[in-house]
Amino acid sequence: MATDDFFRARLDQMIDLRHPLVVLAGRLPWGQIEAALAPAFARKHRAGKVMLGSDLFGTTLEIAGAGVSAAGRPRLPIRLMAALLYLKHAFNLSDEELVARWSENVVWQYFSGQDYYTPQLPCDGTQIGRFRTAIGEAGVEELLKATIDTAVQSRAIRPAEFERVIVDTTVQEKAIAHPVDSRLLEIARAKVVQAAKRVGIALKQTFVKEGKELRRKAGGYAHAKQFKRLRRTVKRQRTILASCCAKLNAN
């Protein structure tokens, strides 16, 4: 059992115990989280490699590198890294911003399981990304499950609220071209030509070369704000499309 440091004040004596993060720190099942994520950081048994050796009796086979290695840097506490991952997504911070703010925020340090204020960075910013990679998708799901279970037990949300999931797909911009008339007319002409070929109708003129040229001119006229020329170009495209549709219907 750890003894108190008489020269430093404990964090629980410096902060408001009614703070949401402080309350959440006491309700999250940290023991369950650590037990679920610990296998991802356990040292793996190495089978070793078979190598040829020699002694007084001749050639022998030896196994090198077998067993469990005790070398390597000691890992950071799982609770600390899991708490940093929680804080990163809760406050939408980069890894470098997260560790810098953690060293200044006593509430965040209490949430991470610290007993006393620590002015140093908890870890290097790159270690958070490596921790997330090490626990994998299963580890992230375990953290999410623990969060949801805690919210249900504390009655912050109701189980009925999980029956419907709303997904917002407008967060990321999509490469959608603006549907100008000239572009749509050219697409429609190409579709009519393809439909004629599928049914075995040979059109005398498909206007492929002229259609591409008119589409290029329309884009230039629109950019230069030469609207009279643009209207004449679009009118010609409509005439071509009507001609192709009439030939297709006639056959």
Structure description:
This protein is mostly helical. It has two domains: 1-40 and 75-158, no CATH class; 181-250. 52% of the residues lie in helices and 6% in strands. The chain contains nine helices and two strands; from the N terminus they run ααββααααααα. The protein has helices at 20-27, 30-37, 78-91, 95-102, 106-111, 125-153, 181-198, 208-223, 227-250, and strands at residues 49-55, 58-64. Strands 1-2 form a two-stranded antiparallel ribbon. β1 and β2 form a beta hairpin. The longest helix has 29 residues, at 125-153.
Q: Descriptors for this entry?
A:
52% helix, two-stranded antiparallel ribbon, 251 residues, 2 domains, mainly alpha
pLDDT averaged over residues: 83
**SSE-based structural type:** mainly alpha
Looking across the biggest beta sheet, what order are the strands in? Answer: 1-2
Estimated share of beta-strand residues: 5-15%
> Helicity range of the residues?
40-55%
Give the beta-strand count. 2
Q: What value does the Rg take, in angstroms? A: 34 Å
Largest sheet: 2 strands, antiparallel
Report the principal-axis shape: elongated
Number of domains: 2
Order of helices and strands: HHEEHHHHHHH
Number of helices: 9
Task: Measure the end-to-end span.
Answer: 93 Å
Describe the oligomeric state of these chains in a short phrase.
single chain
What's the layout of helices and strands?
Elements: H1 20-27, H2 30-37, E1 49-55, E2 58-64, H3 78-91, H4 95-102, H5 106-111, H6 125-153, H7 181-198, H8 208-223, H9 227-250
Antiparallel strand pairs: 1-2
Helix pairs in contact: 2-6, 3-6, 4-6, 7-8, 7-9, 8-9
